[in-house]
Amino acid sequence: MRPHVVVMGTSAGGLRALERILGGLPAIFSIPIVAVQHRSRDSELFATVMRGLVALPVREAEDKEELTAPGIYLAPPDYHLLLEPGRLALSTDEPVSFSRPSIDVLFESAADAYGPGVLGVLLTGANHDGSRGCARIRAAGGVAIVQDPRTAESPEMPSAAIASGAADRVLALAEIAGELVHRSQG
Amino acid sequence: MIRMSGIYERVDLPASLEGGGGLALAASGGEAGGGSEPAPEVGGPGRRGSTVAAAEAPAPFAGVPALERLEMELLLEAIFRHYGYDFRQYAPSSLRRRLKKRLEAEGLSTFSALQDRVLHEPASMEALLRDMSVNVTGMFRDPTFFRALREKVVPMLRTYPSIRIWHAGCASGEEVYAMAILLEEEGLYERARLYATDMNSEALERARTGIFPIARMREYTTNYQQGGGTRSFSEYYTASYGAALFHARLRENVLFAQHNLATDTSFSEFNVILCRNVLIYFDKDLKARTLRLFGDSLSSLGVLCLGRRESLRFTTVEQEFEEIDPKERIYRRTGLPRAPRETGGGG
Protein backbone atom coordinates (compact mmCIF):
# COMPACT_ATOMS: atom_id res chain seq x y z
CA MET A 1 0.00 0.00 0.00
CA ARG A 2 1.05 3.56 -0.58
CA PRO A 3 2.43 4.95 2.69
CA HIS A 4 0.42 7.63 4.42
CA VAL A 5 3.38 9.03 6.29
CA VAL A 6 7.15 8.62 6.19
CA VAL A 7 9.00 8.71 9.51
CA MET A 8 12.76 9.14 9.57
CA GLY A 9 15.29 8.87 12.32
CA THR A 10 18.95 9.68 12.42
CA SER A 11 21.72 10.67 14.77
CA ALA A 12 25.44 11.15 14.23
CA GLY A 13 26.10 11.95 10.58
CA GLY A 14 22.43 12.65 10.03
CA LEU A 15 22.61 16.05 8.45
CA ARG A 16 24.46 14.79 5.41
CA ALA A 17 22.29 11.68 5.12
CA LEU A 18 19.11 13.75 5.32
CA GLU A 19 20.49 16.20 2.82
CA ARG A 20 21.23 13.37 0.42
CA ILE A 21 17.80 11.77 0.74
CA LEU A 22 15.54 14.79 1.10
CA GLY A 23 17.50 16.72 -1.47
CA GLY A 24 16.88 13.83 -3.86
CA LEU A 25 13.10 14.08 -3.58
CA PRO A 26 11.09 16.06 -6.10
CA ALA A 27 9.22 19.13 -4.87
CA ILE A 28 5.98 17.30 -5.68
CA PHE A 29 6.68 14.42 -3.29
CA SER A 30 3.28 14.33 -1.64
CA ILE A 31 3.67 12.16 1.45
CA PRO A 32 4.47 14.08 4.64
CA ILE A 33 7.87 13.23 6.10
CA VAL A 34 8.35 13.47 9.85
CA ALA A 35 11.93 13.38 11.02
CA VAL A 36 13.85 13.11 14.26
CA GLN A 37 17.48 14.09 14.25
CA HIS A 38 19.31 13.85 17.56
CA ARG A 39 20.97 17.16 18.17
CA SER A 40 21.93 19.53 20.89
CA ARG A 41 19.27 21.70 22.47
CA ASP A 42 20.56 24.90 20.99
CA SER A 43 20.88 23.96 17.37
CA GLU A 44 17.68 25.52 16.13
CA LEU A 45 19.64 26.38 13.06
CA PHE A 46 18.99 22.88 11.82
CA ALA A 47 15.67 23.67 10.14
CA THR A 48 17.17 26.75 8.54
CA VAL A 49 20.07 24.76 7.18
CA MET A 50 17.76 22.07 5.82
CA ARG A 51 15.59 24.67 4.14
CA GLY A 52 18.53 25.72 2.04
CA LEU A 53 19.19 22.18 0.89
CA VAL A 54 15.79 20.72 0.16
CA ALA A 55 13.12 21.49 -2.44
CA LEU A 56 10.23 20.47 -0.15
CA PRO A 57 8.93 22.85 2.50
CA VAL A 58 10.73 22.29 5.83
CA ARG A 59 9.22 23.26 9.17
CA GLU A 60 9.77 22.59 12.84
CA ALA A 61 6.82 20.69 14.24
CA GLU A 62 4.29 22.54 16.39
CA ASP A 63 2.11 20.79 18.92
CA LYS A 64 -1.23 19.67 17.43
CA GLU A 65 -0.23 20.80 13.98
CA GLU A 66 -2.25 18.99 11.34
CA LEU A 67 -0.33 16.49 9.31
CA THR A 68 -1.92 17.09 5.96
CA ALA A 69 0.30 19.27 3.83
CA PRO A 70 3.24 17.58 2.15
CA GLY A 71 6.68 18.59 3.32
CA ILE A 72 9.19 17.85 6.03
CA TYR A 73 8.34 18.18 9.70
CA LEU A 74 11.35 18.24 12.03
CA ALA A 75 11.25 17.43 15.72
CA PRO A 76 12.10 20.57 17.70
CA PRO A 77 15.04 20.29 20.07
CA ASP A 78 14.34 18.95 23.57
CA TYR A 79 10.85 17.63 22.80
CA HIS A 80 9.65 14.18 21.83
CA LEU A 81 7.68 14.24 18.61
CA LEU A 82 4.75 11.82 18.31
CA LEU A 83 2.14 11.10 15.69
CA GLU A 84 -1.58 10.97 16.29
CA PRO A 85 -4.18 10.25 13.66
CA GLY A 86 -4.01 13.32 11.44
CA ARG A 87 -1.75 15.44 13.60
CA LEU A 88 1.55 15.91 15.35
CA ALA A 89 2.02 15.96 19.10
CA LEU A 90 4.90 16.94 21.35
CA SER A 91 5.88 15.83 24.81
CA THR A 92 8.48 16.76 27.37
CA ASP A 93 8.53 13.31 28.94
CA GLU A 94 11.94 12.18 30.07
CA PRO A 95 14.50 11.24 27.45
CA VAL A 96 14.33 7.68 26.10
CA SER A 97 17.74 6.01 25.78
CA PHE A 98 19.24 9.40 26.67
CA SER A 99 17.51 11.03 23.72
CA ARG A 100 14.85 13.68 23.41
CA PRO A 101 13.62 13.69 20.71
CA SER A 102 13.74 9.91 20.53
CA ILE A 103 13.42 7.96 17.29
CA ASP A 104 11.69 5.06 19.06
CA VAL A 105 9.04 7.40 20.45
CA LEU A 106 8.27 8.80 16.99
CA PHE A 107 8.31 5.41 15.25
CA GLU A 108 6.21 3.63 17.89
CA SER A 109 3.59 6.36 17.95
CA ALA A 110 3.50 6.32 14.14
CA ALA A 111 2.95 2.56 14.14
CA ASP A 112 0.09 2.95 16.63
CA ALA A 113 -1.57 5.84 14.85
CA TYR A 114 -1.21 4.73 11.21
CA GLY A 115 -0.57 0.98 11.32
CA PRO A 116 0.20 -0.29 7.84
CA GLY A 117 0.33 3.27 6.50
CA VAL A 118 3.80 3.90 7.93
CA LEU A 119 7.08 3.84 6.08
CA GLY A 120 10.00 4.09 8.51
CA VAL A 121 13.52 5.03 7.48
CA LEU A 122 16.37 4.56 9.93
CA LEU A 123 19.68 6.17 9.05
CA THR A 124 23.22 6.69 10.31
CA GLY A 125 23.79 7.03 14.05
CA ALA A 126 26.05 6.04 16.91
CA ASN A 127 23.54 4.50 19.32
CA HIS A 128 20.70 1.98 19.34
CA ASP A 129 17.71 4.31 19.07
CA GLY A 130 15.20 3.29 16.43
CA SER A 131 15.47 -0.51 16.64
CA ARG A 132 12.40 -0.90 18.80
CA GLY A 133 10.56 1.61 16.68
CA CYS A 134 11.33 -0.24 13.45
CA ALA A 135 10.17 -3.50 15.01
CA ARG A 136 6.89 -1.88 16.03
CA ILE A 137 6.33 -0.41 12.59
CA ARG A 138 6.75 -3.86 11.08
CA ALA A 139 4.53 -5.52 13.66
CA ALA A 140 1.76 -3.05 12.84
CA GLY A 141 2.00 -3.83 9.15
CA GLY A 142 4.18 -0.93 8.02
CA VAL A 143 7.55 -1.08 6.32
CA ALA A 144 10.97 -0.35 7.84
CA ILE A 145 13.86 0.62 5.60
CA VAL A 146 17.31 0.74 7.18
CA GLN A 147 20.36 2.39 5.71
CA ASP A 148 23.11 -0.04 4.74
CA PRO A 149 25.64 0.46 7.55
CA ARG A 150 28.47 0.33 5.00
CA THR A 151 27.15 3.59 3.57
CA ALA A 152 26.61 5.23 6.98
CA GLU A 153 28.94 7.71 8.64
CA SER A 154 28.12 5.99 11.93
CA PRO A 155 27.07 2.39 11.35
CA GLU A 156 25.99 1.44 14.92
CA MET A 157 22.36 2.52 14.73
CA PRO A 158 21.43 0.85 11.45
CA SER A 159 23.52 -2.21 12.38
CA ALA A 160 21.63 -2.60 15.64
CA ALA A 161 18.28 -2.47 13.86
CA ILE A 162 19.38 -5.01 11.27
CA ALA A 163 20.83 -7.31 13.92
CA SER A 164 17.55 -7.26 15.83
CA GLY A 165 15.66 -8.27 12.71
CA ALA A 166 13.75 -5.01 12.52
CA ALA A 167 14.52 -4.17 8.87
CA ASP A 168 12.36 -4.98 5.87
CA ARG A 169 14.85 -3.56 3.41
CA VAL A 170 18.48 -2.55 3.76
CA LEU A 171 19.43 0.06 1.20
CA ALA A 172 22.50 2.09 0.37
CA LEU A 173 22.17 5.78 1.15
CA ALA A 174 22.10 6.59 -2.56
CA GLU A 175 19.13 4.27 -3.14
CA ILE A 176 16.78 5.53 -0.46
CA ALA A 177 15.36 8.62 -2.20
CA GLY A 178 14.52 6.56 -5.28
CA GLU A 179 12.83 3.94 -3.11
CA LEU A 180 10.70 6.60 -1.44
CA VAL A 181 9.62 8.00 -4.79
CA HIS A 182 8.84 4.48 -6.02
CA ARG A 183 6.72 3.68 -2.97
CA SER A 184 4.96 7.04 -3.08
CA GLN A 185 3.58 6.02 -6.45
CA GLY A 186 1.78 3.15 -4.75
CA MET B 1 -26.50 5.34 29.64
CA ILE B 2 -22.83 5.27 30.46
CA ARG B 3 -21.07 8.34 29.24
CA MET B 4 -18.18 7.19 27.11
CA SER B 5 -16.20 10.19 26.09
CA GLY B 6 -12.99 8.25 25.91
CA ILE B 7 -10.02 9.37 23.94
CA TYR B 8 -11.00 7.26 20.99
CA GLU B 9 -14.52 8.61 21.04
CA ARG B 10 -14.35 10.28 17.68
CA VAL B 11 -12.95 7.21 16.02
CA ASP B 12 -16.41 5.76 15.44
CA LEU B 13 -15.24 2.72 13.60
CA PRO B 14 -17.93 0.73 11.87
CA ALA B 15 -17.68 -2.89 12.96
CA SER B 16 -16.78 -4.00 9.46
CA LEU B 17 -13.88 -1.57 9.33
CA GLU B 18 -12.49 -2.77 12.62
CA GLY B 19 -12.47 -6.26 11.24
CA GLY B 20 -10.57 -4.99 8.26
CA GLY B 21 -7.93 -3.43 10.48
CA GLY B 22 -7.45 -6.69 12.30
CA LEU B 23 -7.10 -8.51 9.04
CA ALA B 24 -4.45 -6.11 7.86
CA LEU B 25 -2.50 -6.66 11.03
CA ALA B 26 -2.68 -10.41 10.78
CA ALA B 27 -1.70 -10.40 7.14
CA SER B 28 1.36 -8.25 7.54
CA GLY B 29 3.41 -10.41 9.82
CA GLY B 30 5.82 -11.51 7.13
CA GLU B 31 8.06 -9.71 4.69
CA ALA B 32 6.28 -6.56 3.71
CA GLY B 33 9.17 -5.43 1.62
CA GLY B 34 8.35 -6.82 -1.79
CA GLY B 35 5.57 -4.40 -2.50
CA SER B 36 4.22 -6.69 -5.21
CA GLU B 37 1.54 -8.23 -3.07
CA PRO B 38 -1.25 -5.75 -2.44
CA ALA B 39 -1.72 -5.44 1.31
CA PRO B 40 -5.33 -5.54 2.49
CA GLU B 41 -6.69 -2.01 2.57
CA VAL B 42 -7.99 -0.66 5.82
CA GLY B 43 -10.03 2.03 4.20
CA GLY B 44 -12.72 -0.27 2.82
CA PRO B 45 -16.15 1.27 3.41
CA GLY B 46 -14.91 4.83 3.12
CA ARG B 47 -13.39 4.58 -0.32
CA ARG B 48 -16.42 5.09 -2.53
CA GLY B 49 -14.77 3.49 -5.49
CA SER B 50 -12.22 6.24 -5.99
CA THR B 51 -9.58 5.25 -8.49
CA VAL B 52 -7.27 8.16 -7.79
CA ALA B 53 -4.00 7.24 -6.15
CA ALA B 54 -4.69 9.69 -3.33
CA ALA B 55 -3.80 7.95 -0.09
CA GLU B 56 -6.74 7.14 2.12
CA ALA B 57 -5.79 7.71 5.71
CA PRO B 58 -5.70 4.41 7.57
CA ALA B 59 -8.34 4.09 10.27
CA PRO B 60 -7.28 6.07 13.34
CA PHE B 61 -4.99 3.99 15.53
CA ALA B 62 -4.91 1.28 12.91
CA GLY B 63 -1.80 -0.10 14.59
CA VAL B 64 -3.47 -0.74 17.93
CA PRO B 65 -5.68 -3.82 18.26
CA ALA B 66 -9.35 -2.88 18.71
CA LEU B 67 -9.57 -4.80 21.96
CA GLU B 68 -6.65 -2.91 23.45
CA ARG B 69 -8.25 0.39 22.48
CA LEU B 70 -11.43 -0.67 24.25
CA GLU B 71 -9.53 -1.75 27.36
CA MET B 72 -7.71 1.56 27.54
CA GLU B 73 -10.96 3.48 27.24
CA LEU B 74 -12.50 1.44 30.02
CA LEU B 75 -9.46 1.96 32.22
CA LEU B 76 -9.72 5.74 31.84
CA GLU B 77 -13.45 5.63 32.45
CA ALA B 78 -12.92 3.56 35.60
CA ILE B 79 -10.23 5.90 36.92
CA PHE B 80 -12.47 8.89 36.33
CA ARG B 81 -15.54 7.41 37.95
CA HIS B 82 -13.76 5.92 40.93
CA TYR B 83 -11.03 8.47 41.63
CA GLY B 84 -12.25 11.59 39.80
CA TYR B 85 -9.08 12.06 37.76
CA ASP B 86 -10.11 12.67 34.18
CA PHE B 87 -7.55 11.58 31.58
CA ARG B 88 -10.15 10.83 28.94
CA GLN B 89 -9.27 13.94 26.96
CA TYR B 90 -5.52 13.68 27.20
CA ALA B 91 -3.52 13.58 23.97
CA PRO B 92 -3.75 9.89 23.10
CA SER B 93 -0.20 9.15 21.97
CA SER B 94 1.60 10.40 25.06
CA LEU B 95 -1.15 8.98 27.25
CA ARG B 96 -0.71 5.56 25.70
CA ARG B 97 3.05 5.71 26.20
CA ARG B 98 2.71 6.59 29.84
CA LEU B 99 0.10 3.96 30.53
CA LYS B 100 2.17 1.33 28.73
CA LYS B 101 5.09 2.23 30.94
CA ARG B 102 2.90 1.79 34.02
CA LEU B 103 1.76 -1.55 32.64
CA GLU B 104 5.36 -2.71 32.31
CA ALA B 105 6.30 -1.40 35.75
CA GLU B 106 3.40 -3.33 37.28
CA GLY B 107 4.42 -6.47 35.40
CA LEU B 108 1.01 -6.72 33.76
CA SER B 109 0.10 -7.44 30.17
CA THR B 110 -3.33 -5.88 29.62
CA PHE B 111 -5.04 -2.61 30.48
CA SER B 112 -7.88 -4.67 31.95
CA ALA B 113 -5.48 -6.15 34.47
CA LEU B 114 -4.16 -2.67 35.22
CA GLN B 115 -7.72 -1.46 35.71
CA ASP B 116 -8.32 -4.20 38.24
CA ARG B 117 -5.18 -3.26 40.12
CA VAL B 118 -5.61 0.51 40.23
CA LEU B 119 -9.22 0.15 41.36
CA HIS B 120 -8.36 -2.17 44.21
CA GLU B 121 -4.92 -0.94 45.22
CA PRO B 122 -4.74 2.79 45.88
CA ALA B 123 -0.94 2.63 45.95
CA SER B 124 -1.01 1.50 42.35
CA MET B 125 -3.27 4.41 41.47
CA GLU B 126 -0.83 6.78 43.15
CA ALA B 127 1.98 5.39 41.04
CA LEU B 128 -0.11 5.84 37.92
CA LEU B 129 -0.92 9.38 38.91
CA ARG B 130 2.77 10.06 39.38
CA ASP B 131 3.48 8.78 35.87
CA MET B 132 0.65 10.83 34.44
CA SER B 133 1.75 14.07 36.02
CA VAL B 134 5.43 13.75 35.32
CA ASN B 135 6.27 17.07 33.84
CA VAL B 136 9.93 17.36 33.09
CA THR B 137 10.59 20.88 34.14
CA GLY B 138 13.48 22.92 35.33
CA MET B 139 14.49 26.39 36.38
CA PHE B 140 14.65 29.00 33.67
CA ARG B 141 14.03 26.37 30.98
CA ASP B 142 14.15 28.33 27.71
CA PRO B 143 16.24 31.26 29.01
CA THR B 144 15.11 33.50 26.16
CA PHE B 145 11.56 33.20 27.48
CA PHE B 146 12.62 34.61 30.84
CA ARG B 147 14.54 37.35 29.13
CA ALA B 148 11.39 38.26 27.21
CA LEU B 149 9.43 38.27 30.48
CA ARG B 150 11.88 40.76 31.92
CA GLU B 151 11.90 42.96 28.88
CA LYS B 152 8.29 42.86 27.76
CA VAL B 153 6.08 41.84 30.67
CA VAL B 154 7.83 43.28 33.73
CA PRO B 155 7.44 46.92 32.55
CA MET B 156 3.68 46.35 32.40
CA LEU B 157 3.62 44.74 35.82
CA ARG B 158 5.44 47.71 37.29
CA THR B 159 2.38 49.84 36.68
CA TYR B 160 0.20 47.61 38.90
CA PRO B 161 -0.04 48.18 42.67
CA SER B 162 -0.38 44.43 43.20
CA ILE B 163 0.37 41.50 40.92
CA ARG B 164 -1.37 38.13 40.79
CA ILE B 165 0.27 35.27 38.95
CA TRP B 166 -1.02 31.74 38.31
CA HIS B 167 1.33 28.86 37.49
CA ALA B 168 -1.10 26.28 36.13
CA GLY B 169 0.32 22.76 36.20
CA CYS B 170 3.40 23.74 38.19
CA ALA B 171 4.51 20.13 38.91
CA SER B 172 7.36 20.19 41.45
CA GLY B 173 7.56 23.97 41.30
CA GLU B 174 10.91 24.76 39.68
CA GLU B 175 9.40 27.42 37.45
CA VAL B 176 7.58 29.03 40.36
CA TYR B 177 10.86 29.53 42.17
CA ALA B 178 12.41 30.86 38.97
CA MET B 179 9.59 33.37 38.68
CA ALA B 180 9.97 34.40 42.31
CA ILE B 181 13.66 35.03 41.70
CA LEU B 182 12.91 37.10 38.62
CA LEU B 183 10.32 39.20 40.46
CA GLU B 184 12.69 39.66 43.38
CA GLU B 185 15.40 40.99 41.10
CA GLU B 186 12.96 43.31 39.35
CA GLY B 187 11.81 44.69 42.70
CA LEU B 188 8.28 43.34 42.26
CA TYR B 189 8.23 40.36 44.58
CA GLU B 190 6.89 42.32 47.57
CA ARG B 191 3.69 43.16 45.77
CA ALA B 192 3.30 39.83 43.97
CA ARG B 193 1.20 36.84 44.92
CA LEU B 194 1.94 33.57 43.11
CA TYR B 195 -0.68 30.81 42.91
CA ALA B 196 0.93 27.53 41.93
CA THR B 197 -1.41 24.67 41.17
CA ASP B 198 -1.12 21.09 40.05
CA MET B 199 -3.42 18.08 40.08
CA ASN B 200 -0.80 16.00 41.86
CA SER B 201 -0.63 16.66 45.60
CA GLU B 202 2.61 14.72 45.89
CA ALA B 203 4.34 17.04 43.43
CA LEU B 204 2.98 20.03 45.35
CA GLU B 205 4.44 18.63 48.57
CA ARG B 206 7.83 18.53 46.91
CA ALA B 207 7.36 22.03 45.55
CA ARG B 208 6.59 23.35 49.04
CA THR B 209 9.88 22.06 50.42
CA GLY B 210 11.94 24.13 47.99
CA ILE B 211 14.50 21.34 47.81
CA PHE B 212 15.90 20.42 44.41
CA PRO B 213 18.74 18.14 43.26
CA ILE B 214 22.08 19.87 43.48
CA ALA B 215 23.14 18.07 40.31
CA ARG B 216 21.00 20.39 38.23
CA MET B 217 22.26 23.67 39.68
CA ARG B 218 24.98 24.06 37.09
CA GLU B 219 22.39 23.85 34.29
CA TYR B 220 20.04 26.19 36.14
CA THR B 221 22.84 28.66 36.73
CA THR B 222 23.61 28.81 33.02
CA ASN B 223 19.92 29.19 32.21
CA TYR B 224 19.55 31.88 34.85
CA GLN B 225 22.42 33.89 33.46
CA GLN B 226 21.22 33.54 29.89
CA GLY B 227 17.75 34.50 31.03
CA GLY B 228 18.94 37.88 32.24
CA GLY B 229 19.73 37.06 35.88
CA THR B 230 21.48 39.94 37.61
CA ARG B 231 23.01 38.25 40.64
CA SER B 232 24.90 35.10 41.51
CA PHE B 233 22.43 32.22 41.27
CA SER B 234 23.96 30.47 44.29
CA GLU B 235 22.71 33.34 46.48
CA TYR B 236 19.26 31.80 46.29
CA TYR B 237 19.96 28.41 47.84
CA THR B 238 21.97 26.62 50.46
CA ALA B 239 23.68 23.42 49.41
CA SER B 240 23.75 20.46 51.76
CA TYR B 241 23.73 16.69 51.44
CA GLY B 242 23.42 16.69 47.68
CA ALA B 243 20.43 18.98 47.73
CA ALA B 244 19.84 22.64 47.10
CA LEU B 245 17.47 24.22 49.60
CA PHE B 246 15.98 27.40 48.18
CA HIS B 247 15.49 30.27 50.58
CA ALA B 248 12.15 30.37 52.33
CA ARG B 249 11.61 33.97 51.27
CA LEU B 250 11.09 32.77 47.70
CA ARG B 251 7.93 30.95 48.75
CA GLU B 252 6.62 33.47 51.26
CA ASN B 253 4.34 34.92 48.60
CA VAL B 254 3.53 31.61 46.96
CA LEU B 255 0.37 29.61 47.56
CA PHE B 256 0.58 25.99 46.44
CA ALA B 257 -2.81 24.38 45.90
CA GLN B 258 -4.35 21.38 44.19
CA HIS B 259 -6.28 22.20 41.02
CA ASN B 260 -7.12 19.98 38.08
CA LEU B 261 -7.28 21.75 34.73
CA ALA B 262 -9.33 18.92 33.25
CA THR B 263 -12.15 19.16 35.78
CA ASP B 264 -11.88 22.32 37.91
CA THR B 265 -13.01 25.84 37.09
CA SER B 266 -11.63 29.33 37.36
CA PHE B 267 -10.93 30.42 40.92
CA SER B 268 -9.69 33.99 40.65
CA GLU B 269 -8.47 36.72 38.33
CA PHE B 270 -4.83 37.10 37.41
CA ASN B 271 -2.45 39.48 35.70
CA VAL B 272 -0.27 36.67 34.41
CA ILE B 273 -0.93 32.97 33.77
CA LEU B 274 1.94 30.62 33.00
CA CYS B 275 1.10 27.20 31.62
CA ARG B 276 4.08 25.91 29.75
CA ASN B 277 4.25 22.45 28.21
CA VAL B 278 1.07 21.29 29.91
CA LEU B 279 -1.42 21.74 27.08
CA ILE B 280 0.69 19.46 24.88
CA TYR B 281 -0.66 16.61 27.02
CA PHE B 282 -4.29 17.54 26.36
CA ASP B 283 -6.28 16.75 23.25
CA LYS B 284 -7.65 19.53 21.09
CA ASP B 285 -10.96 19.87 22.94
CA LEU B 286 -9.48 19.86 26.41
CA LYS B 287 -6.87 22.35 25.28
CA ALA B 288 -9.67 24.60 24.01
CA ARG B 289 -11.56 24.24 27.29
CA THR B 290 -8.45 25.08 29.28
CA LEU B 291 -7.70 28.13 27.15
CA ARG B 292 -11.23 29.39 27.73
CA LEU B 293 -10.65 28.87 31.44
CA PHE B 294 -7.49 30.96 31.19
CA GLY B 295 -9.30 33.64 29.21
CA ASP B 296 -11.92 33.82 31.94
CA SER B 297 -9.24 33.98 34.62
CA LEU B 298 -7.20 36.83 33.16
CA SER B 299 -7.77 40.46 33.95
CA SER B 300 -8.05 42.89 31.09
CA LEU B 301 -4.63 43.05 29.38
CA GLY B 302 -3.61 39.98 31.37
CA VAL B 303 -0.68 37.98 30.02
CA LEU B 304 -0.71 34.30 29.03
CA CYS B 305 2.54 32.36 28.62
CA LEU B 306 2.61 29.02 26.82
CA GLY B 307 5.42 26.61 25.97
CA ARG B 308 7.64 27.35 23.01
CA ARG B 309 5.90 24.93 20.66
CA GLU B 310 2.35 25.60 21.77
CA SER B 311 0.15 28.29 20.33
CA LEU B 312 -3.33 29.76 20.21
CA ARG B 313 -3.60 29.10 16.50
CA PHE B 314 -6.87 27.48 15.45
CA THR B 315 -8.48 27.92 18.86
CA THR B 316 -11.69 29.74 19.76
CA VAL B 317 -9.89 32.21 22.02
CA GLU B 318 -7.35 33.29 19.43
CA GLN B 319 -9.28 36.50 18.72
CA GLU B 320 -9.23 37.49 22.36
CA PHE B 321 -5.44 37.68 22.50
CA GLU B 322 -2.64 39.56 20.84
CA GLU B 323 0.94 38.41 20.61
CA ILE B 324 3.47 40.20 22.77
CA ASP B 325 6.32 37.93 21.77
CA PRO B 326 5.40 35.44 19.06
CA LYS B 327 8.60 33.43 19.35
CA GLU B 328 8.34 32.99 23.12
CA ARG B 329 4.57 32.45 22.94
CA ILE B 330 3.65 35.32 25.21
CA TYR B 331 0.13 36.65 24.65
CA ARG B 332 -1.98 39.45 26.08
CA ARG B 333 -5.74 39.62 26.42
CA THR B 334 -7.11 42.39 24.30
CA GLY B 335 -9.92 44.61 25.48
CA LEU B 336 -12.33 42.77 23.18
CA PRO B 337 -15.29 41.06 24.81
CA ARG B 338 -14.91 37.35 25.36
CA ALA B 339 -16.40 35.02 22.83
CA PRO B 340 -19.63 33.39 24.01
CA ARG B 341 -18.82 30.33 26.09
CA GLU B 342 -22.09 28.44 25.87
CA THR B 343 -21.38 27.04 22.43
CA GLY B 344 -18.60 24.91 23.82
CA GLY B 345 -17.26 23.22 20.73
CA GLY B 346 -13.75 22.30 19.89
CA GLY B 347 -10.83 24.25 18.51
Write a compact overview of the structure shown.
The complex is a heterodimer of chains A (186) and B (347). By secondary structure, chain A is α/β, with parallel strands linked by helices. Chain A is 32% helix and 22% strand.
Q: Which sequence of strands runs across the widest sheet of chain B?
A: 6-2-1-7-8-10-9
Q: What fold name goes in the CATH topology slot of the largest domain in chain B?
A: Rossmann fold
User: What is the number of E strands of chain B?
Assistant: 10
CATH C-level category of chain A = Alpha Beta
Shape of chain B: globular
Listing every helix as H and every strand as E from the N terminus to the C terminus, the arrangement of chain B reads HHHHHHEHEHEHEEHEEHEEE
* C-alpha-based Rg of chain B, rounded: 23 Å
CATH level 3 topology of chain A: Rossmann fold
CATH evolutionary superfamily of chain A: Methylesterase CheB, C-terminal domain
Which percent band covers the strand fraction of chain A? 15-25%
- Provide the number of structural domains of chain A: 1
Percent strand of chain B equals 15-25%
Q: Care to describe what's here?
A:
The complex is a heterodimer of chains A (186) and B (347). Chain A is of the alpha/beta class and 186 residues long. Chain A has a single domain, classed as Methylesterase CheB, C-terminal domain (Rossmann fold), CATH 3.40.50.180. A 7-stranded parallel beta sheet of chain A has the order 3-4-2-1-7-8-9, sandwiched between helices. A two-stranded antiparallel sheet of chain A has the order 5-6. The longest helix of chain A has 12 residues. Chain A is globular, with a radius of gyration of 14 Å. With 347 residues, chain B is an alpha/beta fold. Chain B has 2 domains: 73 residues, no CATH class; 191 residues, Rossmann fold, CATH 3.40.50. Chain B is built from 11 helices and 10 strands. In chain B, strands 6-2-1-7-8-10-9 form a 7-stranded mixed beta sheet. In chain B, α3 crosses α5. The two termini of chain B are 27 Å apart. Chains A and B meet through β5, β6, α3 and α4 of A and α1 and α3 of B.
